[in-house]
């Protein structure tokens, strides 16, 4: 069975009890982050500049400009992430079946780039904007799992936290620069949103070029042995060692693996407890009565925290275990939600919220995928990662709609306190699902 090793410690994993391997992994340090990870990080950095140029101004444009209600914004915000859900699984399975992860990722990056131009035609129509956002997120859904699978397949198991930390740090650099570039474009173009959308497309197209030129897709592992078949003169001839295509039944078999099933349930729980970035920034804007000029800089503060912490937390996850780091990240999210309706005001509130919010992303974004990596066989790595990401995306869609409804019904302060309570409940559920796994320590700690 391809998942028969889930319940046994992985001898290549430093957290599986192999002290010598742990020591060697630490000595090798950053050298274990290969060129492919850096190339993928560069693509993500460029693409995030493009994405954040748009996302930094979109909440302000929709809520303050178009006067959308919190519920309507919640629906669009849910679409922004939830639209990726089904295509993630399809894209992941296709990438594993045809062994063309780079191709699928490239199509996804290109689709998101073209979608930026669609915002020009959408105008002030919320429905049209929703369709364009869905197209952009479909591109993200198509590329994310193949990209993360290429990272896991280019990195030793004991250094996945470090690799994802470096990648997410580069991604965070793009997220940090994106809002600043958007502000510069707005200032140069006299406040024209169309100029931001066109510039965003040009930057995204550059990311596709870097992917094509510098990223390498790891070939699929050959079958362990080649079968001997009859040849001329009675001499055996080795059959082709080309891997057989992944089947639907193999993909469905992921659900039968207890470790994967528990991780998927935990990812859904955590996704249900997470509200969108736009809501956090809108709550801060309302609380502190910030002008529209300063609104995009809230995302810059979060990205700066993320950029500084992603790589160190990835290294920490490899050393102390990935589950504790993920749980610590959601504790930071709990603190963020409790601060929003709390007694703190002014710059201390802004610094604490944005710092903790960046810490949350740095401790969870790549580390959760690193946590999933050792549980998944190589030939189904992309499908498995897509499954976890899809569970979170669907949960996030629901949570965004529910939070928008709660805000509209109970007000922002009560809605945020309820969100904080949901984070606490999700943390308890995650510990119960993932911590009590003594026979699968490699999957939890590693």
TrEMBL record:
Signal sequence: where? Answer: none
Transmembrane parts of this sequence:
30-51, 71-95, 169-189, 195-215, 263-284, 290-311, 323-340, 346-372, 384-406, 418-436
This protein is called MFS transporter
Cross-referenced InterPro entries: MFS, MFS_dom, MFS_trans_sf
Task: List the Pfam families hit by this protein, alphabetically.
Answer: MFS_1
Domain of life, source organism: Bacteria
Topological type in the membrane: Multi-pass membrane protein
Q: Where is the Major facilitator superfamily (MFS) profile domain?
A: 36-441
UniProt keyword annotations, A-Z: Membrane, Transmembrane, Transmembrane helix
Q: Tell me the segments the record calls region Disordered.
A: 1-23
Alphabetical list of Gene3D superfamilies matching this protein: MFS general substrate transporter like domains
The entry's localization annotation reads:
Cell membrane
């Amino acid at each position: 069975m391809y998942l028969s090793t889930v319940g046994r410690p992985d001898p290549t994993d430093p957290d599986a009890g192999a002290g010598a391997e742990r020591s060697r992994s630490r000595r090798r340090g950053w050298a274990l982050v290969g060129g492919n990870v850096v190339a993928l990080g560069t693509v993500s950095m460029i693409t995030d500049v493009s994405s954040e140029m748009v996302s930094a101004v979109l909440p302000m444009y929709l809520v303050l400009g178009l006067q959308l209600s919190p519920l309507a914004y919640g629906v669009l915000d849910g679409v922004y992430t939830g639209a990726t859900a089904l295509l993630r699984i399809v894209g992941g399975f296709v990438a594993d079946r045809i062994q063309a992860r780079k191709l699928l990722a490239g199509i996804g990056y290109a689709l998101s780039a073209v979608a930026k131009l669609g915002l020009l035609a959408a105008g002030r129509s919320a429905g049209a904007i929703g369709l364009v956002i869905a197209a952009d997120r479909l591109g993200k859904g198509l590329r994310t799992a193949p990209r993360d699978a290429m990272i896991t397949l280019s990195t030793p198991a004991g250094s996945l936290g470090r690799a994802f930390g470096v990648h997410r740090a580069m991604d965070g650099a793009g997220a940090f620069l994106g809002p600043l570039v958007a502000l510069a474009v707005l200032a140069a173009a006299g406040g024209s949103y169309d100029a931001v959308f066109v510039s965003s497309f040009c930057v995204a197209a550059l990311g596709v070029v870097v992917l094509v030129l510098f990223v390498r897709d790891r070939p699929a592992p050959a079958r362990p042995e080649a079968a001997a078949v009859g040849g001329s003169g009675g001499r055996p001839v080795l059959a082709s060692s080309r891997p057989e295509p992944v089947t639907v039944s193999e993909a469905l078999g992921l659900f039968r693996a207890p470790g994967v099933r528990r991780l998927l349930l935990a990812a859904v729980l955590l996704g249900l407890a997470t509200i969108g970035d736009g809501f956090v920034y809108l709550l801060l804007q309302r609380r502190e009565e910030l002008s529209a000029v300063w609104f995009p800089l809230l995302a810059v503060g979060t990205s700066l925290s993320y950029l500084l912490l992603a790589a160190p937390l990835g290294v920490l996850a490899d050393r102390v275990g990935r589950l504790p780091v993920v749980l610590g990240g959601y504790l930071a999210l709990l603190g963020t939600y409790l601060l929003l309706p709390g007694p703190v005001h002014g710059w201390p509130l802004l610094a604490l919220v944005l710092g903790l919010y960046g810490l949350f992303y740095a401790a969870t974004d790549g580390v959760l995928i690193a946590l999933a990596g050792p549980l998944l066989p190589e030939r189904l790595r992309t499908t498995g990662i897509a499954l976890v990401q899809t569970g979170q995306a669907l949960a996030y869609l629901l949570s965004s709609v529910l939070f928008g409804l709660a805000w509209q019904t109970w007000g922002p302060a009560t809605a945020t306190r309820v969100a904080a309570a949901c984070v606490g409940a999700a943390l308890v559920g995650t510990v119960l699902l993932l911590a009590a796994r003594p026979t699968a320590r490699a999957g939890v700690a590693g």
